Amino acid sequence: MAMQTTNDPSAAGLRLPISRRIFAVEGMAILAVFALLIGIFMITAPQTFLGYRIYMTFLANVPPPMILALGLTFVVVAGEMDLSFPSIVAFSSYVFAILFKNYELTWLAFGAALLVGVILGFINGVIVTQLGIPSMITTLATLFLYGGLVTIVSGGLTIAIPSVTDTGIHAFFAGRIGVLPVQALWAVGVAVLLWFILNRHRFGENVLFIGDNARVAHVVGIRVDREKLKIFTLMGLLSAFAGVLLTLETTTYFSSQGMGYLLIVVASVFIGGTSIFGGSGTIVGTVIGALIVAIIEAGLVASGVQGFWTRLLIGVVFLVSVTLNTALEDPDRVPLFKRIRLRMKR
Amino acid sequence: MAMQTTNDPSAAGLRLPISRRIFAVEGMAILAVFALLIGIFMITAPQTFLGYRIYMTFLANVPPPMILALGLTFVVVAGEMDLSFPSIVAFSSYVFAILFKNYELTWLAFGAALLVGVILGFINGVIVTQLGIPSMITTLATLFLYGGLVTIVSGGLTIAIPSVTDTGIHAFFAGRIGVLPVQALWAVGVAVLLWFILNRHRFGENVLFIGDNARVAHVVGIRVDREKLKIFTLMGLLSAFAGVLLTLETTTYFSSQGMGYLLIVVASVFIGGTSIFGGSGTIVGTVIGALIVAIIEAGLVASGVQGFWTRLLIGVVFLVSVTLNTALEDPDRVPLFKRIRLRMKR
Amino acid sequence: MTMQAGEDSGELVRMENIQKHYGKVESLRNVNLSIGRNEIVGLLGDNGAGKSTLIKVMTGVEAPTAGKLFIKGKEVEAGGHSVRQAQELRIETVYQDKSLGEKQPLWRNFFVGRPITNRLGFIDVKAEKRIAEQIMKSTIGFRSRGISVDSTVGKLSGGERQGVAIGRAMHFDSDLIILDEPTVALAIKEVRRVLDFIQSIKAGGRSCIYIEHTLANVHEVADRLIVLDRGEIALDTQKSAMSLNELTEFLLSLHRVRH
Amino acid sequence: MTMQAGEDSGELVRMENIQKHYGKVESLRNVNLSIGRNEIVGLLGDNGAGKSTLIKVMTGVEAPTAGKLFIKGKEVEAGGHSVRQAQELRIETVYQDKSLGEKQPLWRNFFVGRPITNRLGFIDVKAEKRIAEQIMKSTIGFRSRGISVDSTVGKLSGGERQGVAIGRAMHFDSDLIILDEPTVALAIKEVRRVLDFIQSIKAGGRSCIYIEHTLANVHEVADRLIVLDRGEIALDTQKSAMSLNELTEFLLSLHRVRH
Amino acid sequence: ADPALTGEGMTVYFQMGGNPGDSATLARELGAKAAADLLKVKLMPQYAGWDQQKMLEQANQALAAQPDAIVVMGHSGTDSMKRFLDEAKEAGIVVVTNNTRLPGTGLSYFGLDNYAAGKLLGEQMIAAGLKSGDKAVIYGTFEQTAHADISRGTIEAFDAAGVTYDKLQWSNEAVQDPSLAVPVIASYLQSNPDVKAIAVPGHSGITAVLAKVMEAAGKEPGSLITGGYDISPLTIDGLRKGYVTVVVDQQPYLQGYMPVLAAVLQKRYGIAGLEMNTGGGVFTKDNFEWVVPLVEQGVR
Ligand SMILES: Nc1ncnc2c1ncn2[C@@H]1O[C@H](COP(=O)(O)OP(=O)(O)OP(=O)(O)O)[C@@H](O)[C@H]1O
Ligand SMILES: Nc1ncnc2c1ncn2[C@@H]1O[C@H](COP(=O)(O)OP(=O)(O)OP(=O)(O)O)[C@@H](O)[C@H]1O
Ligand SMILES: [Mg+2]
Ligand SMILES: [Mg+2]
């Protein structure tokens, strides 16, 4: 009982090692991992990573998958999954490209593309809530369904719209401020907005509780189905936005557009540290996760890693990043490290 | 209280409509869906589906993905995921093919291939349990890692072993009894064995409880980590077996082998009716699920569906199958149908 | 407490021939029941008698299989009733099953479903934390070291969790407060607090349904006693008509008659 | 009951300076404690006092942060102790947290961890169902319609679930039975059954640790009383030395002294 | 001065197309490595899994490293590559294209004329006995991508000869695991017993399973005229047994070797605008034996 004062929680908080307090801030641990990775590449590939160009390249290309990963973070926090986003990306890209090409629409084309995303996302939500099919299967099916639909509608066409670079909408969404690609600012904007929604808005709170335990969410008065519908619709909207950004950057639509993002985006969310079990998630982590995923391969190539080794090393970097991320936040959450620590104490 | 007798549970059981009692048997609902699908194809493509050949073709090609799906069912029942199996398939195929080609080993090559599968699966398990990385991320990483490793080891070469068809091991695993492909019997054997393990063996019971609630499993005395290790190892073993069957059937190894199975196998498990949330699963369902997934595209093509429509229709068939499967077992589990029923009663 | 206008019949809740089946299990059978204003109703019955099911139907967690439900004199459509609607009708419930988000901090669990927000729906985190802190300290009085409003609920002890659930019910000022075994897992002093709280409900002119197996507690605070047996109402009486001993005897007799 | 051979010191469990931290929360602090043979120990304390944590450390669910644990005279290695090992040492526990697989049928929940198997590890389903049926009927006596050993546990009422957990503990014949708030959610008659069961433990020469907030129950059946307060042992005495009133007074006094 | 041509000190980024070790990628890798070793060039291979989007991103990443030369795949098309090409030109970086042309850029190109190759496939099948009025099936991709030009070439050849055909779009899964195509084509053949020929414009793996397809559909070797693409070990077996009639080979080794050489030539001597159609190889049952060992080394 003499120890009482030293056990005051705030005092205990102060006594935590400074490293632990730094890494308790959302995303700090994964940021450290990212910095480490960049640091390594600066040493192994100085020509590339000490210049600014590579970073501008990333900033031009990362926004679409990053925005997708941000949307998927919401879905995962709600304990759901969405695998259909590549097809939504393709669909909205197509709508934007064809409307621009055939009717020279810009903002209207943008609006139409977003609307398509909203509708397709909404349909996902309706299937999940009304037919009760788990979202993983639903969206696996709609990945095929929407993907098939857009190839049928487009006849498998590739649509090039090089003249879009002269439009205001291009400057607004995918232009350059100096060397800085504008779409990077949009990605940051989306991230900030979603951070506030997840952590400070009632919608985000509902999402957290639904993912934590849907039964509890129901019992405390959350309209679970309605919120789920919103989540999938939001994901559709963000997929469409990502699709338009992508089309503006590459000035082309082709029918497999977006498919390459499937694994990348899923990996970004989980490397960022969002729990696969729902109920918690980190927006900052996803942002960094998307950057890490984007940088690994380019970094390895620039470091002179040859062909076959890249794939292997990507796997290794994934594992190391995730472990490091967890260990920096709390070494005891890595069972192996905990066991070692306990052994050493004896 | 006068009603008491009529509320005797056994009496109530008897009063259930006969359809409900039939579909309460494991896999009967999905079997009905499958029969319906075959029935439709018999009408739309009689030349193909009224003959025996197409069925023999399926029986020759379905066993590898079916065995993978059976293994994955265990993993999913335990509340985990394995995405690395395509690379394990490739790795064990390579080991088998190279040992056969260079040293004319057959049974030893088979043993070595299985051993490789066991080791890779075991490594997955070790990472999941020791580093505490959720299995979805772990196996996404090892999908790359193992895949990279096998291309490095194999130098990316394709290995054809046409002469394997003259060996006893080929006859044993992939020969024909009359027109019946032997591998179909092996797949059935694996299914029966796994059914008994899941439903009647203590290992299966442990898997069920771990997937239901890992904390509860721990508390009732199940060694959760050890059992998880076993599950991933089993999945590795089955992946290797699937890989060898595939190599024996196609008499070739190439480095992207197995990759095409990723979505197919995942879809088979879920279409079969195994819950994505763990704690329950159906072996019979997975068997039929694998058959459905295999038959859709061929059936559509034989029915005259061409070009881009196949993909769209695959998505539609997925959704309809899953909904029908659920509705046959209990219409009230489909929220929409339940609502309609309630409306109609009023 | 605000009085409702118009057609208010003095009844808060009325159930007519309510039935609830779970598959072939019949949890409630022809339940007729009404809860009046400013009354404390003790709801008793065996394990599996249907008490919790009755509550869930009343608060919109589950839809009844058949029957009519009136709240404050208005019929609520089956299937149309929801927890949210019940909350809007000022019914507050502490469920027996866990009803806390285990990965969420204490303060969020306190306000979830009805957060303090600005017009855009953004949550006033500071205000929520302050109020949660106040209530946890004053009403429930946790004594553990290291527990704060930021603590994750999953890390609390059994009794502490129950405390959070009750604190929530105490905070939102309602016309009808339903407590499904609220004293479970609570230490002696906290049990006393809950009983005091129920008495304050009465004093405030509000109503309460109180489910509990410890008969002495129920008998102490209830105005009216309802006993469920195998999904049917076996007794509905004013407390004054029955002593604690008679009540105990009645409950035990149910076993003898029908088993 | 089988007597253990050899170095058996007469003590079933001994804890020396056991400590348990959860992050910065200190749940147990320097706990020294021993449980003898054939004794019923009532473990009391406030919400969050550390009772459940103590049990979890004892049964291998959680590893202690520091300190030594001896079971039947042998030290168990920290981290090396597991639930399974505890079971093998014939310790049986009913935990306060849910410890049932909700999607699994009742019979599986009964035998999980220690199924009746043949030499190949295949489960004798018939035997398990038969025994489960027997126990559910005779010991716990469910009266609900439609509940059978095939019922999924998630569909049972709160009290019914508790009944399953206790039935499990009753079935496996152990040297030490630990009950963490076993009567929670149980109806009067079932509470009586649990108390009778505890008395039968004593009569059978076995031991029991019994956690409960209803002091009257504990005082009735216990031989010895241990009170935990904020992770420390505040009292460890024979029941005979303390009347129920004194015990109540002591527990309430803890609040006054330190809050 | 030393007259020998060397690329010493040069860094060349090289897009290999698929994934490391892909049947359609390996020979290109080996060719590029051979040339790089010979010319002492530092080779930086990039792999895109045939994802056009990724190819474009990788081109930009290569640009960021400011190497001496970048060898790109032309799949993303001239329009979407415009920004990249402009920036490369400005930075004085040599750009060479392989496998798929970037029309209108005038860059050095080594690869197939996809369209011509597809046409060649069709013509060879007609030469092998396909007649006007016969029905064939084309199992390939029909989207409007550069790769699909192969299908279009075959279609034109069939149209010209009056051969009718059905078009089956291959699935992503079958592209990765060709054994998945077996039941699909086999069931098609059974529903359409009048089909006389199968054309697989543009996939070596699916070409390799043609024998299995015919077995499954109960067709004798030689009973169908089959045409495929890119020689591989199993295709050789198909040729040998008579299941495969003709294989057009795009000789990807050249697509690896030549661009490196061209990059050095252009950097050192300013020699630009080279072009080569690498797709001249045609194999039938009469002329494949000599290539067998090379195929096993991965060179062909
Ligand atoms: N979701 C469900 N599915 C099937 N049966 C259910 C479900 N929920 C409850 N039941 C059954 O309905 C009956 C009544 O359950 P309920 O929870 O209402 O009992 P209770 O009176 O609250 O019991 P307790 O005192 O044990 O909490 C029980 O027999 C139970 O098994
Ligand atoms: N997993 C955990 N993480 C962090 N803190 C925990 C965890 N489990 C328990 N605690 C804390 O440890 C303290 C003791 O908890 P414990 O469950 O042992 O209490 P208890 O005496 O059983 O209380 P009750 O009577 O309410 O069941 C509490 O303050 C609780 O918040
Ligand atoms: Mg209840
Ligand atoms: Mg406790």
Automatic annotation (TrEMBL), chains A, B:
It is a multi-pass membrane protein. InterPro entries: ABC_transp_permease (IPR001851). It is found in: Cell membrane. Keywords: Cell membrane, Membrane, Transmembrane, Transmembrane helix. The chain crosses the membrane at residues 22-43, 55-77, 83-100, 107-131, 143-165, 177-198, 231-248, 260-277, 283-301, 308-328. It comes from the Bacteria. One of its GO terms (cellular component) is plasma membrane. One of its GO terms (molecular function) is transmembrane transporter activity. The keyword Transmembrane applies. This is ABC transporter permease. It comes from Kaistia nematophila. The lineage of its organism: Bacteria, Pseudomonadati, Pseudomonadota, Alphaproteobacteria, Hyphomicrobiales.
Automatic annotation (TrEMBL), chains C, D:
CDD domains: ABC_Carb_Monos_I. It comes from Kaistia nematophila. Residues 13-255 form the ABC transporter domain. PANTHER family: CARBOHYDRATE TRANSPORT ATP-BINDING PROTEIN MG119-RELATED (PTHR43790), SUGAR ABC TRANSPORTER ATP-BINDING PROTEIN (PTHR43790:SF8). The keyword Cell cycle does not apply. The keyword S-adenosyl-L-methionine does not apply. Keywords: ATP-binding, Nucleotide-binding. This is ATP-binding cassette domain-containing protein. It holds the Pfam family ABC_tran. One of its GO terms (molecular function) is ATP hydrolysis activity. The lineage of its organism: Bacteria, Pseudomonadati, Pseudomonadota, Alphaproteobacteria, Hyphomicrobiales. It comes from the Bacteria.
